[in-house]
Amino acid sequence: MHFLLLSYGCQMNRADSDRIRTALIKEGFDETENPSIADVFIVLTCAVRQHAEDRVHGRLWSLARIKREKPWARFVLAGCLAQEHGGELFNTYPFLDLIVGTHQFDMITNLLKEGEKGLFTDDSQDIKPLENPCLIRKDLFKADIPIMRGCNNFCSYCIVPYVRGREVSIPVDDVLREIESLPKTVKEILILGQNVNSYKHKGLDFSDLLKMIAEAFAQGWIRFLTPHPRDFTRDVTEVIASYDNICNQVHLPLQSGSDRILSLMNRGYTLNDYAEKVDIMKGLIPNLSLSTDLITGFPSETEEDFEDTLDCIQRFGFSSAFTYKYSPRKGTKAFDMDGQIEPEVRRERLIRLINAVHNEVTKQTLYQVGRRVKVLIEGRSKHSGTFMGREEGNRVVHIKDAENYIGSIVDVRLTGADGWNLYGEIV
After folding, report:
1. Most exposed: 50, 128, 129, 364, by fewest CB within 10 Å?
2. How many CB atoms lie within 10 A of CB 108?
3. What total number of domains does the chain contain?
């Protein structure tokens, strides 16, 4: 029996896909990317923003046609969208066989084998250890390693605590066991959690775990997502500075440059708090590459608030930024706030935000030209005749004549820059 696994959304969904894939293949299922031969279709969903949800809805309507052509095929909707809307999705998509929430991924294989149908979205927070930590990943050179699930922050715009549940840390031994089982081809790991800084297990915090991971994974680089500025301690910065295999790139979501908006967002820090953390990092981590998330159009955001956010882009010298217009999520506190911004205003501010980020990133990228850096070569790029990789700061580098180095970390001299892209040659 062949299954086709479609994943939308964040890196945590990508990690969950690896676990679902491994469980299915272990039980005799074969993966395919060809819908014409698939017997099982699994859609792993995201509900954090409306755009992600709209993409899933569009794909589901296309699957409805396949169901008419292949009535025996099984269709599974899993993840955050399933957890949020539950059984009402059967009314919209009656061809679905299973709707599986964020806490029941480990049930999917048995549900399919036993021919079950229905809704499975209870709120169990149990984290079961991986029976076999040797996961079957699509990426040969990178691996996502979850260290916790859920979130306790309840930012007023975010639905994650409602669909992913409260914070639960994965035991240290289970995290290290998964890392130690990685094949030698893996040259980069991404430590994942909705708020990695709040990791706690048997008296150990995130800085302790990060140190243990750095000592356990000597074959490549270590990155982590997503830290919360409120909980980002000097201890973590010192660990990053102490280990060469922990990348000098930190993704620290700012969201807004206005203290008033940050308070309404329930972020738990001020702009000055954020700046102090960045100053410590820049003082301890050579060539720090700082990336961020920025939201515009949050309820009651004034032009002055928005300008405060624009000012931060240059002030902190972000190497990259994920930019979003506020997306109302039913059930969150911000959904019912006064001062909802008109969609056209949100859209116009987002365009200005993207342009400001592009200008700063272009400047930061140009600063890199002439440097000698290490790059993990990932494969062929969309640029004709070149290969692409990422340097330690997570910037994209295009290189010629690198076919024999795919999957390796190599020394590269940066020879040029074009917007977000760098160009280089292997030394």
Report:
1. 128
2. 23
3. 3
3-class secondary-structure state, position 188? strand
Q: Are residues 353 and 253 in the same domain?
A: yes
How far apart CA 141 and CA 387 sit, in angstroms, is 15
Sheet holding 188-192, edge to edge: 142-146, 188-192, 221-225
- Look at strands 40-45 and 30-31 and give their pairing: unpaired
Whether residue 177 sits in one domain with residue 153: yes
The residue out of 88, 120, 152 marking a domain boundary is 120
User: Whole domain around residue 54: which residue ranges?
Assistant: 2-120
Tell me the one-letter amino acid at 408: S
Task: Name 53's bridge partners.
Answer: none
Task: Please state the separation of Cα 417 from the chain's center in Å.
Answer: 26
Task: List, for residues 342-386, the tens digit of each pLDDT value.
Answer: 999 999 999 999 999 999 999 999 999 999 999 999 999 987 789
> From CA 272, how far away is CA 294, in angstroms rounded?
16
3-state secondary structure of 226: coil
- Whether 185 contacts 138, CB under 8 Å: no
